[in-house]
Amino acid sequence: SSNDHKLSFRKSKEMCLNYIQDALLQKQWKRAAELLTCYVESLEKDFSREHVNPSEIIWRIGAEILWHHSQSSMKEFSYFMEQMKTLGVKRYLKVNLEHVFHLLCNGQIDEAYQNLSLAESWRFGEQTAIQSKEMKLVQAYRGLLDYCSWCKQKNLLLENGEDGFSDLAAEQEMRGYFRKAAVNLKEIIKIPGVWDVFVKCYVDLLEFYGDHNEAHQVLNEYAYNSKFPANPNAHVYLCQFLKRQGESKKPLISALKILHDIVPSHELMIDFNTMLRKSKKRKKRRLGLEVIFAVLDYAGWKENTKAWSCLARQVKHILLSEKYLDWIKQEWNSRKDWWPAFHFSHYLAKRNWQENKSLSYEKALVAGILLGKDCKYFKYVSHQGCKAQLKRFRMLKKFVNRHNSVYLRISA
Q1: What CA–CA distances, in Å, run from 196 to 71, 165, 185, 376?
Q2: pLDDT per residue over 198-257, tens digit each?
Q3: Handedness of CA 320, 326, 331, 334 (dihedral sign)
């Protein structure tokens, strides 16, 4: 009966899709291709009146298989994508964008640009809001390729020095790429979203032509506009821009403070600590200690000599000034249960000494102050340093022994 046929077809379709999914997860591309062929053939033989629209499933699965299949080529992939564009007109722009990504991955930049140009001129019925956003994305990627052409032309002119920029035709061509790229990139970053690559390229264009105010405004908007999703990179780009422009410390410190709150382990925190440590204001020096302690909470920084040097330098300065020991105590209280095993084990002392003596020196100083002269890490490193007759390790041992009372005070 008709109902039995519909039920049977639905079960067969679901079963086939499950098999395809299993093959994709196991990276069995040949098996997945055979199953997809069966799936398409079963749809062609379906005589039920139920409306079936599997074009998106075929597009997404087919693209994945062709991209990974050992016997497929870019020519076959492009042919398949062209078929998918006509199969689902409402998804034309999405399919076109995916096709462009694959062309770019294969270095076929001219073909990608041609596809974007065709997509930009494409129209289907009354344009919906979704299609409008997709069209903006198409234009943005075309702007990105114009930016790549601008970079290529700029590098050629820079290679030739002043003579290169005296070539009026080449300079005008470069300006043309700049205008086309800037128009499209500027439009996409007005829409709330994560547009990192587009923002970076647009700012690069503006900076090259000296429009620093516009660049600053774009980055401020990208970082602080509440309509945009939270994005640590937006604050990173702003901080990097402020550093490049040599802005006063106040706006840079404000931007770095926000980045610290969002990503306390970011590499810019080393610069942030250095700025705060040199400040005359007590509140900022206090924040500097908090920043460097927070950085070293993360495994990626465990063996970073510069980070340990920053902490060692600030701890040593506090000890010598005989002020603000409570700062160290406050930071240490929340870490004393896990930092010893995380940073200052006997195993790490041996490994650090063998691989990086500068690192072991900085860590030993911090370990000796925080855990006292009987700390395993400090005892091993200072012993090895004195045994090797290295002067700074003898001085380190004397310094920690002299200030051992500090350990008793901060551990009380």
Answers
A1: 35, 30, 11, 46
A2: 999 999 999 999 999 999 999 999 999 999 999 999 999 999 999 998 877 889 999 999
A3: positive
